Amino acid sequence: LSIYLLLLQEVSYHLAVYVPRILCLGPSGGSSREEQREEQREDLASQLLLLAPLEWLLLGEEPASGLHLLQENNQPSPLCGHVFKVGEPTYSCRECAADPTCVLCMKCFLGSIHKEHRYRMTTSGGGGFCDCGDAEAWKKGPYCQQHRHPPTDRDAEEDPVSVLPADMVARGVSIFSILLKYAVDMLTWDQEDQLPAGLEPLEDTYYCMLFNDEVHTYEQVIYTLQKAVNCSQKEAVSFATTVDRDGRKSVRYGDFQFCDQAKSVIVRNTSRQSKPLRVQVMHSSVVAHQCFALRALSWLGQIIQYSDGLRRVLCEVGLQRGPEGEYSSLVDKLMLNDSKMWKGARNIYHQLLMNSLLMDLKYKKIFAIQFAKNYRRLQTDFMEDDHERVVSVTSLSVQLFTVPTMARMLMVEENLMTTIIKTFVDHLRHRDLQGRFQFDRYTAQQAFKFGRVQSLIGDLKYILISRPSEWSDQLRLKFLEGLDAFLELLKCMQGMDPVVRQVGQHIEMEPEWEAAFTLQMKLTHIISMIQEWCSTDEHVLIEAYRKCLSALSHCHSGLPDGEQPISLSVAGHCVETFRYQVSQDKVSIHLPVCRLLAGLHVLLSRTEVASRFPEQLPLGELSPPLLIELPLRCLVLCAQVHAGMWRRNGFSLINQIYYYHNVKCRVEMFDKDMIMLQAGASMMDPNHFLMIVLSRFELFHIFSSADCRKRYRDTHKDVVQQNNTLMEEMLHLIIMVVGERYVSGVGQVESFDEVRREIIHQLSIRPMAHSELVKALPENGNKETGLERVIDSVASFKKPGVTGRGLYELRPEWNKHFNLYFHHFSRADQSKAEEAQRKLRRQNGEDTALPPPSPPLLCPLFGSLVNLLQCDVLLAVEGAVLQWAVEPSGGGWTESMLQRVLHLVGVALLEEEQQLESSSRDDDVTFNYTCKITRPGEAPSTSGSVLALLESLQNAPHLEVHKDMITWILKMVANIKTMRERTSSTLTVPVCPGQGPEETLRDKDKAERKRKAEMARLRREKIMAQMSEMQKHFINENKELFQQSLEELEASTSAAADNSPPSSESTCVAQVCVGPRRVGGAEHRQLVTCILCQEEQEVRGQGRAMVLAAFIQRSTVLSKNRRRNLPDPERHDPLFMNPDLSLGIHTASCGHIMHATCWQRYFEAVQLKEQRRQQRLRGHTSYDVENGEFLCPLCECLSNTVIPLLPHTHTPDYRYTPQVNSLFSLRVDHPSLEAWLKMTNQQITAIHSAHRKPAEPAVPDGFKVDFTPQNLFSSSVKEMITTFSMSTYKVGLKVNPNEQDQRVPVLSWSTCAYTIQSIGTHTHLGRDDCLSSLTRFSSACWTAAPPTTVQSHFIRLLAALVPDSRVENTLSILDIDMFHLLVYSVLSYSSVHSLDQSGQRVVDSAHLHILHLVTVAHLVQILLTSTTEEVCMDQDSSASEEEELTCRLYNTLRKHLGSVLPEVTSGWQLFRCVKAGCLPFLRATALFFHYLNSTAPPADLLVAGPGQWEALCSYLDLPSNLLQLHQNQHTLLEPWCCHPVVRQTLQVDGVIVRFPRESNRLIQLPEDYSILINQASSFTCPRSGGDKSRAPTLCLVCGSMLCSQSYCCQTEVDGEDVGACTAHTFTCGAGLGLFLRVRESQVLFVAGKTKGCFYPPPYLDDYGETDQGLKRGNPLHLCAERYRKIERLWRQHGIAEVIGHAQEANQTLVAIDWQHL
Ligand SMILES: [Zn+2]
Ligand SMILES: [Zn+2]
Ligand SMILES: [Zn+2]
Ligand SMILES: [Zn+2]
Ligand SMILES: [Zn+2]
Ligand SMILES: [Zn+2]
Ligand SMILES: [Zn+2]
């Protein structure tokens, strides 16, 4: 002991000296970099100076080797014990887990047998650990591969401490107790500027410490901090984030006054609305010691990982009772101070508890007992605390209580069940005068407490979740004691929230109802579980039944008081009951005591306890009328609400009724009320039962009065209607009471049958998805519905397509089990199901009667229920309704009543038939309904028997709908008659029931005719349906057309091409689209119709302008370099597109044409409407009018500009005549390249000099520098050209419109080139209005710009190809996208050519020359960038001409560049490179000239295949051996290669774009969704040092993981704070983004800052459904088709459009703050 004290002294001294010197020195905050460095320093220092000495001491040697030695003797715990991070995936096996809280970590799961089972996957909310290795948690396969083999060299029972050397154990005990005590003392220390004795402080510096709470928002804290400690917004955010994560953070450091000042500012600023933020001024030494205490705990946690012996030593130390008595161990102290500690401290010690006590099987039990002893205290502390439950020590209950043996042990030894229930009841203090809960006028504070108190129900559920297989006397005793407590709780609920019918005035305030229902809902599983426990032991069941009954009689004590009983009589029967009317007196929906009794009653029947021990049961004490009284009132209340009698009681009541029937509550509400009525009815005279029912429905007078037809004569119409509804409801109730037998114990069925019946009825409504079915079925405590066991036997599964979900369809053979009055149908369900079933029967050519299905047999205890069907009162009711049906007049009767009566008659007949079938002799059958209905009725005024009435109704014209049913009934009656005769007589009777042969024949004939007519009608119906379906889909299909894959499109066009060749000429002549030999464009007039005014109009340059709605957006879809920064809009020179295509401008159009004037008028109207709307609502819309956005008036496609339609280009200069084809002669001068270059050069010189000195050099003939070309366009067309130019300029550069800017025409050309390029790999030549008008517009847009501007562009463009000394800073050919260069040059050439008045028209020649130049440049580009690893396979010794030429060209390039280019000998390989690299360029070029010159493409162009290369070359008038081209232009190679940038780029190995550029794809996603979840769970926020991100979000374009929807990662973009996703879109997608929100399993599309929508993820479960929000937890797998669809949307620039449509369809999407995601 003295050694211990000595050691204690030494350690304390050491800590007192060093801790304040090492930890918490100086201010925190500043940059996160500094803070990190400081933290590393502290880590190092505390390891070296504080912890290492302890390690030496403990191990007695050098720590590293000592620990290694320890580990060798360690027996790892068989438990995995992996503690879950927030968001980490957890797996639970639905077949083997003891309960749903048993989970595996991903690693264990993948190594377990359960991955082949049905499992559920969820994401952890943090805390909790992996149950792998816990034999009690799994019915099968408790070990994964890794934890499978517990080392066998040591006995599991052996004390691990005994393996350790004794002296080490002694040292361990001392060190652990000193350190643990130190840590506990420091963490529970509540003085701000004093320290425990022995740890006196050194100098006086202080911290201002801010603590978190759940009351204040981030914004409040940030704002306050900025004011209080004068920090930047960024620092404040960082402080706030840390406070939220760790629970506290020092925000200021200095002397006391300095800190105190900050404290008072914070308190003052936050105390206005609520309680102020918690702030303390703490001595820096206190803070330092607390910090070290946490490090010490972590250290302990690490050390015990090395040795199970040391782990047990620590457990022993922790749980050792202190000097103060029972609750004084160090662990007790921690637990009891839990709610006073800050979040970070709690997390660390919880973690230590999990690593130590919960991993040691012996101490886990001891700890559990201690936990149970403290239970009430801990829960009370938790109620006062405002932290979430995950950071409370009470959340450990799930680790302890769910272990079944542990739960039983705690129940028996610590009476845990009773403790939990009593603690719960104590915390719900608000009661009314009768002691019932009262949730009226609940304050927010109370509601918050109520929320917390519910976690106790969770604990109760844990200990009850597994039923005991064996009972000890002790367990019986304690369980029944717990049941007593539970009944006390239920008594407080019985009759709570009573309602009284409001007459006259509507209620003023909706009463509170949700709290009571929340309670009911939470308790539902508990109630069911208690019943399950009872069902496993006869003694317990009998005792429970007694207790419940006495509780109920206690509740009933006030019931029949006061009033005199009244006596009722009808149909010769008489009963006494008390005066009570639901419509006037108090009534409550909450009757848990009754319902528990009903549940137990069924168990008595099911377990046959009732028949085996009748003497032990207090059945004699039961008063059936009392039993049924309260449930009946509740059901009558529902009926009256349906009848509209409670309209003035508001929505609160409607909601209650809704939940009463809802699947979440009905098992322990509605269902049990039905059972109670059945129980009561089976114990009573059926006539008495019905009379009481009639009386409670307030319908008794109708049947008791002498002439019931009089009843509506002088009553108000409303009352008649009410009574009608009540009659219907009452009949329905009777149907349910006698007919609902699918509860094991009521009828002779298994739970399997019960579930199957539910499913059959759900699927009778319509085919349903798996999740819909799950939602419609009640879950048990294990979250199972039993659906999977049943579903395949009754339904067939239909897989989903690319949209929609998989559906289950009822197999036809189950249709006969359909019951129209199925008790769980809502009224809407019922009518839908009825309609569906009748339709089905008609389709099958059957009659439309929907008779009841034959019911299962009743259990003996409920056997006498059937007598209801044949009792006098019911017969009287039936007779009356039929009588009214025979002579309907006035409003006192409805068809629904008749339908229900017919159903009841049917049920009775089925019952009789069944009994007859199962009996051998006639006199066995006591049920004799047929006999009774043939007797004349006894009810007043009934003229005939029920049967007679039915017969007369059979032909009533007004009852056509019910005819089939009546026929069915009469057949049944006849059948039964025959059966009776057959059993009574020995003669055999013909099987055909009582019909003569003649009659049958006539019937047959009639039936046949009917069937034919029916068939014809069905056919007609089908055709009509098909037509309307087609119409409906037409619009949608057209809308989706552009979204369809191009592959599909191409398939269809090529198919079309087979039928009608694109042009008749193409059949005989090679089509050429460029150059002097090009074939003339279509000269036909172009007539279009305006969608707004429907007027037809010809497209003419001089006519009224026609426009096409269009949408321009910036695009990075083709980008090969996502790291390139966006250009500065003011400085950016767009004349040369970089080959990485990092940012382009895309134009799309829905193809709808309008007059420019019509469109302008439309747009103005939209603007006006929007202005007015914004004044009213100030909301966004799906389109942004201020940015020129509107929706196409026809298809609502998002648009932001219009493209003017222009006429086709002029015909070729000289007509090329096919006749001279063979001679290959042209009747036109086609100047050679040299000649053309020379001339162009002269023209350029002229232009240059014109702008400097007056004409000095030789000007080519006819070239007039100052010539103004004649105006080609009318003013309206011109205006539209400007409009579209400005839009591309504005969107493309993100600048304000400026018509003077030189860049305007460039951007117009740019969108033309980019859009054509984005069409992708498939050359789709055909009618594309958008591309065609875009190209024609681009060729004309130069007319809207000053000619000199365009000319100077041309000069610069040409200089990039043909060196020109007058142009400075030309780019190297590696920095230019050649297709863009081609388009720009061709389009800008017109401005130069327009000055040429010589009459020589060389435009086409010029185009061809430009094309040749650019093509050669591209070839060089490809060769320079080709990655030709030498592959030694000289295919052919004799190389082809192409290959030789390629080699030669390459070698020339090498001559210029030398070793920068690798040596390549294989011409074959080079040529292959060239060909593949060049193809996309040729395709795009063909498209461009096709649209520019309106040349119809030859047929072979449309077919992708081996001939395509040749077809393209010929269409472009290029030699099919492209390499020949370069021979004319070899002089250019040198300047191209010698551009300094070329060498540099190739050498430095920068970003080299290679050809062909592969088209971009979205990132690869894993097949199994949990892999993504796992990735996301280990993703930490990049800004807040190691913190887990709450909403990790994956960019589908580039694969970056982002920390979305969080303060920490907000960035400023254009002066506004935006979330990580939005910020990312600006760098990655030019404002447009596609993301996968991993935790939500949801795809997110965002465009700009205000627009976005969610999109179904490409992950489906086995039932073909997505799981957005990851609520259901079925395993999810990638659906490649759906992912491809998303990819296609992106590649075709359809995302913005999808967002637009989604927002248009769902206005709530508009209100979401997308920019914060
Ligand atoms: Zn694990
Ligand atoms: Zn494992
Ligand atoms: Zn399993
Ligand atoms: Zn018009
Ligand atoms: Zn449209
Ligand atoms: Zn990205
Ligand atoms: Zn973050």
From TrEMBL:
Residue ranges, annotated region (Disordered): 833-852, 986-1010
UniProt-recorded Gene Ontology molecular function terms: ubiquitin protein ligase activity; zinc ion binding
Top EC class, one word: transferase
EC number, as in UniProt: 2.3.2.27
Basic and acidic residues composition-biased segments: 999-1010
UniProt cross-references to InterPro entries, sorted A to Z: ClpS_core, E3_ELL-like, E3_ligase_UBR-like_C, Ribosomal_bL12_C/ClpS-like, UBR-box_UBR2, UBR1-like, UBR1-like_WH, WH_DNA-bd_sf
GO biological process: protein ubiquitination; ubiquitin-dependent protein catabolic process via the N-end rule pathway
Highest taxon of source: Eukaryota
Known pathway: Protein modification; protein ubiquitination
Any one GO cellular component localisation term in the record: ubiquitin ligase complex
Protein location: Chromosome; Nucleus
Chief location of this protein within or outside the cell: nucleus
UBR-type zinc finger span: 78-149
Keywords, alphabetical: Acetylation, Chromosome, Coiled coil, Isopeptide bond, Metal-binding, Nucleus, Phosphoprotein, Transferase, Ubl conjugation, Ubl conjugation pathway, Zinc, Zinc-finger
Catalytic activity reported: S-ubiquitinyl-[E2 ubiquitin-conjugating enzyme]-L-cysteine + [acceptor protein]-L-lysine = [E2 ubiquitin-conjugating enzyme]-L-cysteine + N(6)-ubiquitinyl-[acceptor protein]-L-lysine
Residue intervals of the UBR-type domain: 78-149
Described function: Ubiquitin ligase protein which is a component of the N-end rule pathway. Recognizes and binds to proteins bearing specific N-terminal residues that are destabilizing according to the N-end rule, leading to their ubiquitination and subsequent degradation.
Family membership noted in the UniProt record: Belongs to the E3 ubiquitin-protein ligase UBR1-like family.
Protein known as: E3 ubiquitin-protein ligase
Species classification: Eukaryota, Metazoa, Chordata, Craniata, Vertebrata
